[in-house]
Design goal:
It catalyses: ATP + protein L-histidine = ADP + protein N-phospho-L-histidine. About 50% of the residues lie in helices and about 20% in strands. By secondary structure, the chain is an alpha+beta fold.
Length: about 600
C-alpha cells in the first residue's frame, strides 16, 4: 500500500508535488508549533515574573530586616543601660540639674549619629521634673491615653512595631515600642525608636513591581508608589481577603485589574507583631511583551508562508529549479553546513544525484564528528597524564617521617632539660609536617622559606660552626605563590656539596630578588664545584623523559615541576666550576605568581 502511494506520488507533476509538500510539511507544523510555543511563552513569562517577584520580595525582606534590626539592637542596649534608667528616674531639684544630667548622657544623640537606620529615639516617663528635650519626655495625658502607650505597658516583656506620629514633625513613622523597667518597684518608661522612612522607601524604589510595607494595623508605612504612601491597605481597591493574609501568593483584583499578590512577613525575634511586604503586579503587564512578540512573529510567519506559496507555485514547473536547489545545497556544504539534507523527489538522474549527495554529506559529517571526538579525547588524555605526572613528581620528594615519634622525643628531651635538642626536634617535626601536608596547591614564598630555615637550623645543629647560611629576600616577594618543596631540595644539595671535602665548612646563600617581571631565585654554595663531565651528565639527567633507576631525583624533580607549572623556559640553570662552588638558579613569572592559589 505504502509502495503504491510512493509510486503515485512520484508520478505527480513537480508543481503539484511541491504544493502538497508545502501544505503538509510547512504550514501544518508551523501552526501546531506556533500555537504550542505561544502558550509556552506566555507561561514562561508568567513563571519568570513570579520568580523575579519572589526574589525581589526576599531581597526586600532581608534588607528591611537589616534596617529594623538596628532599632531592635539599640532598644536592647538602652533597656539595659543603668545610666539611662538613673537619668529618667531621678528627681531633679532645678533646671540646671536637668540640663547637666542631659549633657552627661549623649548616648541617644550618638546612636542617631552613628546609625542612619533610625531617625529618632525618645523615652516617655512619668517624671514631672524632667525637661522635654525630644529624647526624654514627660508623657502627657494624650500620650498616656494612646493605644500604643497603653499596649506597651500591658505587654512589658515584648517589642511591638507601630506606625505612630512623632511629636517633633507630626509625621508618622514605623516605630519600635517597648517598655523599660526604670526601678525595682515596677516603674516603667516607654521607649520609642523611629525607623528611617527614607531608607525604607529607598529599598522599595529600586523594585520594578508595585511594592509596599504594611504594619499589622494595615497602615502602609513605605511604598514605591507615591499615591500609596500614608494610606491604609483598606483604602486600596484590593480584595478584602488579602487583609488577613500573612504570607503566600494570591490572585486578587486591584482597581478592577486581575493581579498577582505576593506577601511575606517580617517578624523580628522577641516581637509580638511584625510587618508585611506586599508586591502587586497585573497579569496583563506580564504577558504584554510576550503577546507583542507573538503577534509580530505570527505576522512574519504568515507573510513568509504566503510568499513561499506564491514562489513555489510560479517556478515549480521549471526544471532548472531542481538544479538550482541542488547547487544551493552544495554551496552550503562547501561553507561547512553538514546538517543540510536535500529532498529526494523522483527516480530520474537528479533524484539519483540527490541520494548520492545526501549520502556523501552524512559520511563527511560523521567523519568530522569522529575526528573532533578523537582530538578531544587525545587532549583530555594528555592533560590527565600531565596532571598525574605532576602529582607523582610532587609526591616523590615528600619523605614520610614518623612525626608522632619525633614529638615524643622532643617532649622527653624538654622534660630532661635538653632544650637545644628539643628545639631541633621541634623544627624537624614542623618541617616533616609541612612536607607531609604539601600537595599540588601553591603556597606563599614566606611559608616555603620557613621550611628551608627549619632544615638549615637542623643541619647547623648537626655541623655547628661548619655550616653558615644567609638569606637575601626582597620583602615584596614574600606573598609570591609557588609550588611547595622547590627551594629546600636545592638548599639540601648546596649543603651536601658545600660540606663535601671542604675543611672550612659550608656557606650557603639564598637570594630571591625581582628582575623585571620575574622573581629570580639563586642558591649558591662554596663547595668544590662540579667537573664538566659530571655537569653534562647532570644536565642530561634533568632533561631525560623518564627517571633513571638509582639516580638522585631531587634536582630533576624540581626541574620538571617548574617546567610543568611555568613553561619550558622556567627550568633550573646550573653554573659551576671546579674549586669555585655551585650556583643553581631559576625564575618564576610574576604575572600569575602573586595571585592566591
Amino acid at each position: 500500500m505504502w509502495h503504491r502511494f510512493v509510486t503515485l506520488l512520484n508520478d505527480i507533476k513537480i508543481r503539484n508535488k511541491l504544493l502538497l509538500s508545502f501544505l503538509l510539511a510547512a504550514l501544518l507544523p508551523v501552526l501546531l508549533v506556533g500555537g504550542y510555543l505561544t502558550a509556552e511563552m506566555r507561561q514562561m513569562a508568567f513563571n519568570n515574573a513570579m520568580e523575579q517577584a519572589s526574589t525581589n520580595v526576599d531581597r526586600i525582606k532581608k534588607r528591611t530586616e537589616e534596617v529594623i534590626r538596628v532599632s531592635l539592637d539599640i532598644s536592647y542596649r538602652l533597656s539595659n543601660d543603668a545610666r539611662l534608667k538613673k537619668l529618667a528616674n531621678r528627681h531633679y531639684e532645678s533646671v540646671y540639674d536637668v540640663v547637666e544630667a542631659y549633657r552627661d548622657y549623649p548616648d541617644m544623640r550618638e546612636y542617631l549619629r552613628l546609625y542612619k537606620e533610625i531617625s529618632n529615639i525618645r523615652l516617655y516617663t512619668d517624671n514631672a521634673t524632667l525637661l522635654n528635650n525630644w529624647e526624654l519626655i514627660n508623657a502627657s495625658d494624650d500620650i498616656k491615653a494612646s493605644d500604643w502607650y497603653r499596649h506597651a505597658l500591658d505587654h512589658e516583656s515584648l517589642v511591638s512595631w507601630r506606625y505612630i506620629e512623632d511629636e517633633r514633625d507630626h509625621k508618622k513613622y514605623l516605630s519600635l515600642v517597648r517598655t523599660i523597667e526604670l526601678e525595682s518597684l515596677k516603674k516603667y518608661g516607654v521607649l520609642v525608636l523611629n525607623v528611617n522612612a527614607n531608607m525604607l522607601n529607598s529599598i522599595l524604589s529600586q523594585e520594578t513591581f508595585d511594592t509596599m510595607i504594611v504594619d499589622d494595623q494595615d497602615n502602609i508605612v513605605a511604598a514605591n508608589r507615591g499615591d500609596w504612601k500614608n494610606k491604609k491597605l483598606t483604602d486600596l481597591s484590593l480584595d478584602r481577603n488579602m487583609l488577613t493574609q500573612r504570607s503566600g501568593t494570591f490572585e486578587a483584583t486591584l482597581n478592577g485589574i486581575p493581579s498577582k499578590v505576593l506577601i511575606d512577613e517580617v517578624k523580628p525575634a522577641s516581637s509580638e507583631n511584625g510587618i508585611r511586604i506586599i508586591s502587586v503586579f497585573s497579569i496583563g503587564s506580564i504577558v504584554k511583551e510576550p503577546n507583542k512578540i507573538i503577534r509580530l512573529a505570527l505576522t512574519v510567519i504568515v507573510i513568509s508562508i504566503v510568499l513561499a506559496f506564491l514562489l513555489i507555485y510560479s517556478v515549480s514547473s521549471l526544471f532548472s529549479r531542481r538544479m538550482l536547489r541542488l547547487s544551493r545545497h552544495i554551496t552550503r556544504v562547501g561553507l561547512g553546513d553538514f546538517d543540510t539534507t536535500l529532498q529526494i523527489d523522483g527516480k530520474d538522474e537528479i533524484g539519483l544525484l540527490s541520494r548520492q549527495f545526501n549520502s556523501m554529506v552524512r559520511n563527511i559529517h560523521d567523519l568530522m564528528e569522529e575526528v573532533t571526538q578523537s582530538n578531544e579525547r587525545n587532549r583530555l588524555l594528555e592533560q590527565k597524564q600531565s596532571e598525574i605526572r605532576f602529582k607523582m613528581l610532587a609526591s616523590q620528594i615528600n619523605p614520610h617521617f614518623l612525626f608522632n615519634a619525633l614529638e615524643s622525643i622532643r617532649m622527653e628531651a624538654h622534660m630532661k632539660g635538653q632544650t637545644e635538642i628539643a628545639r631541633i626536634v621541634r623544627l624537624l617535626g614542623k618541617m616533616m609536617r609541612n612536607n607531609l601536608e604539601a600537595g599540588n596547591s601553591k603556597i606563599p614564598l614566606k611559608q616555603e622559606l620557613e621550611m628551608v630555615s627549619c632544615y638549615l637550623e637542623i643541619q647547623r645543629f648537626r655541623y655547628e660552626d661548619r655550616l653558615r647560611y644567609e638569606f637575601h629576600v626582597d620583602p615584596a616577594l614574600e606573598a609570591l605563590y609557588m609550588p611547595p618543596l622547590i627551594i629546600q631540595p636545592l638548599v639540601e644539595n648546596a649543603v651536601v656539596h658545600g660540606l663535601d671535602n671542604n675543611a672550612e665548612g659550608a656557606s650557603v646563600k639564598v637570594a630571591i630578588l625581582r628582575e623585571g617581571n620575574a622573581a629570580m631565585f639563586t642558591i649558591t654554595d662554596n663547595g668544590i664545584g662540579i667537573p664538566e663531565e659530571r655537569m653534562d651528565k647532570i644536565m642530561q639527567t634533568l632533561e631525560d623523559a623518564e627517571e633513571r633507576e638509582g639516580e638522585r631525583i631531587g634536582l630533576r624533580n624540581v626541574h620538571v615541576r617548574l617546567k610543568l607549572t611555568y613553561g619550558e623556559s622556567c627550568g633550573l640553570s646550573i653554573r659551576s666550576k671546579p674549586g669555585c662552588g655551585t650556583a643553581i638558579s631559576f625564575a618564576i613569572p610574576l604575572e600569575g605568581g602573586m595571585i592566591d592559589a
